[in-house]
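Please supply some protein, with C-alpha cells.
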Amino acid sequence: MYALLLAIIYVAFISLGLPDSLVGSGWPVMHGDLGVPLGYAGILTMVIAAGTIVSSLLSDRLTRRLGVGLVTALSVGMTAAALFGFSAADSFWTLCLWAVPYGLGAGAVDAALNNYVALHYAARHMNWLHCFWGVGASISPFIMSHAIGAQLGWSSAYQSVGTIQAVLTVILLASITLWARVNPTHPVDTDGDPADAPADGTPAPAPEQPRRHVPLGTALRIPGVTLVLGAFFAYCAVESTTILWASTYLVTDRDVDAGTAAAFGALFLLGTTAGRFLAGFVADHVGDRLLIRGGFLTVALGVILVALPVPTDVVALAGLVLAGLGCAPIYPAIIHSTPASFGRENSQAIIGIQMAAAYTGSTLAPPVFGALSTWTGTWIFPLYLVLIVGLGLVLSERLNRVVAPGTTRAALT
C-alpha cells in the first residue's frame, strides 16, 4: 500500500510542476492576443502567488479537517478547473479571475503533500519527488511550444494540461480509501515501508493521537520557526531571481550571445532537477543539515564564478550551472527536516507557513532586483544573489543551533 501511495504522490508532484511554467512560456503570444502590455504578466503571477500564499497558510486547518488525500484531490481539481478557465478566457481580467483558484489550488496541495512525505518517507524520496516537480515544470513549456507551433493556439496548451490535471483528480479521488487505510500517524522507514519495531525487540511506538490545529501565532512563537522561514525566503528569492534575470545579465554585462544565454538559463533549471535526482542517492546518508549547508555554499561558489571578470564566458556559464546544482537539495532538505526540528504535531502548520514564505520570496525578489537594476545596472546581479545566499546560510546555521537540543542525530548529520 505504501508503495502504491508513493507512486501516486510521485505523479501528483509532476502535476504540481505542470502549471507553473505555462504562463511564462505562453505569455509572449498571450499578451498580444489579449491586447495587454508585456508587463501585465507580473500582475497575473502576483494574483496566482497571493492565492497560493493564502491556501498555504490555511493548509493545516484544511488538512486536519479533510485529510491529506481529499485536500490533494480537491486542490488538483481546482487547478484543473482554473486551467480550463484560462483556455476559455478572452480578456486579461478574466485570466485574473481564474488566477485565483489557480493559486489557491497550488498552495494547499503543495503544503499537504510535502508534509505527508516529510513525516512518512525517507529523505531520498523528498529529493526525487521535487525532481519530478522539475520534470513537470520542464514538460509544460514543450506542450505550449507545440500548441503554438502547430497553430493550435495557447488555449490548447491550457486545455491539454487541464485534462491531465482532471485525470489525476479522478485518480486521487479513487485513492481516498487508500490514504485512509495507510495509517497517517505512523512513520515509515527509509525504504518507504511501515516502520518496524526497533532491532532490540522493543515494541514500535504507539500511533500518535490526532493532532490539533496549530494557529499561525502559536507556530511563529516556536523557537527557530522565524529562522527557517527566513532561510526558505532567501532560497526561493535566489532561485526565482536567477531564473528571471540570469540570461539578461549574461547578455547585457557579459556580452554573451542571446541564444547561448537563454540555453544556459534553462540549464540552471535542468541542473536543479538533475541535482535533486542525484541528491536522492545520498540524502539518507548525508542528512538534511549538510545538504542545506552544502547547497548554499555551492550556490555561493557558482555566483562568484558568474561574477569573475575573466575574458572567457565559460566560467560564468559554468557558474550558472553550478548554482543550479547547489539549489537542488535546499528546498527538499528544509521541508524534510521540519518534523524533526519542530515536532510532528507542528509540521503541517509550519510547512504551510514555509510554503507562504517561499512564494513570497519568489514573488518579491525578482521585481526588487528589477527596480534596483534600473538605478545601478544589471551588473549588481551577482552581488544581489551573494547577499541573499549569505542571509540564507547564516539563518540556516543559526537554526541548527536553536533546534539542535531537540533533534535526532539523523536529522543533524
